[in-house]
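R.M. (postdoc): so does anyone remember the format we settled on? I'll just put the structure tokens first.
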């Protein structure tokens, strides 16, 4: 009996030692992962000046027109100045599925502007009256300033690239405006607003932004589009690729090798290349897609990354690693 008990104790002891060993390995692995993550997100000590920031674009409504600004604050969910925030409005179906210019190219002709306080947004589009939207009521969730007291501000769910986000519906007047513009009916589409200060989706972790496709910032090198235009019969501009930041100075495609970017004193971390789709074929001035699928067709001839599929890479996605303000004319540093 003593021998049996001793054998059981020995097996139990071995099991405990094995468990302790595995636990130790797990702790070490977790520690190594945290250390690597910290190192990956620690800005470098040395920077190389690469160029200058020439343009800043903010797109308040996903897939609609841009607002050109001389300076902008940088937050985790994207560029912002008070209530002028990047891609915090989205057009959806009645059921809540997001709609982009890939399906409705004329969306790019919806032109937004904000008042001086960046609290009220005005929209214009071909054949449509100007629409005024008091963004404060949607940002605060209060109904006091609404032009329609029947508007329901109960949080709604919107699906963006398969991930749910909580949004606020912007009311019947705005819904009619978009429906009439897009399908010439009183119903069919709605405008919804993302009031949160942090990312709800996890497509690129906390860098996913508000309602962005991938991350909250996209940077574009002016020389890269110049090189592309040498290959095209019909030239395109940087705005056709919907960047937030345009940099002048680096050689074409130098951005492919950057892992850190600093604009003035604001630091960004490279996340992934920007993979291009049919959206790039839509002319931002006419809202018409190119019948020859340019410039996407040409980009596929020389900018594909085999490991990432058939979509060509053009520009880079960034995540913010320190808040602040950037302005046109700021030097751009890389590492």
């Amino acid at each position: 009996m003593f021998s049996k008990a001793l054998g059981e104790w020995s097996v139990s002891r071995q099991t405990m030692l094995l468990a302790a060993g595995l636990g130790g390995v797990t702790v070490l692995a977790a520690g190594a992962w945290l250390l690597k993550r910290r190192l990956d997100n620690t800005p470098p000590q040395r920077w190389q000046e690469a160029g200058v920031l020439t343009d800043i674009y903010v797109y308040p409504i996903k897939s609609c027109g841009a607002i050109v600004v001389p300076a902008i604050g940088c937050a985790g969910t994207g560029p912002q100045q008070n209530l002028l925030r990047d891609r915090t409005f989205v057009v959806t179906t009645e059921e809540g599925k997001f709609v982009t210019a890939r399906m409705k190219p004329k969306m790019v002709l919806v032109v937004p502007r904000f008042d001086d306080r960046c609290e009220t947004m005005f929209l214009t589009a071909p054949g449509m009256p100007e629409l005024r939207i008091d963004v404060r009521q949607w940002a605060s969730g209060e109904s006091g300033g609404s032009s329609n007291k029947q508007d329901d501000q109960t949080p709604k769910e919107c699906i963006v690239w398969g991930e749910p986000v909580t949004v606020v519906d912007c009311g019947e007047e705005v819904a009619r405006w978009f429906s009439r513009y897009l399908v010439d009916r009183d119903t069919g589409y709605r405008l919804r607003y993302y009031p949160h200060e942090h990312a709800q989706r996890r497509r690129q972790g906390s860098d996913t932004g508000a309602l962005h496709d991938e991350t909250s910032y996209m940077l574009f090198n002016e020389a890269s589009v110049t090189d592309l235009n040498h290959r095209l019969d019909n030239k395109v501009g940087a705005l056709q690729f919907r960047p937030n930041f345009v940099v002048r100075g680096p050689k074409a495609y130098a951005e492919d090798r950057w892992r850190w970017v600093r604009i003035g004193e604001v630091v960004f971390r490279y996340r992934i290349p920007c993979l291009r789709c049919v959206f790039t074929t839509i002319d931002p001035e006419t809202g018409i897609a190119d019948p020859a699928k340019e410039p996407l067709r040409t980009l596929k001839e020389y900018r594909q990354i085999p490991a990432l599929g058939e979509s060509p890479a053009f520009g880079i996605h960034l995540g913010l690693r320190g808040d602040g303000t950037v302005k046109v004319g700021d030097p751009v540093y890389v590492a």
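R.M.: ...and that's the designed sequence above, right after the tokens. Also worth knowing: The chain has a mean pLDDT of 89. The chain is about 20% helix and 30% strand.
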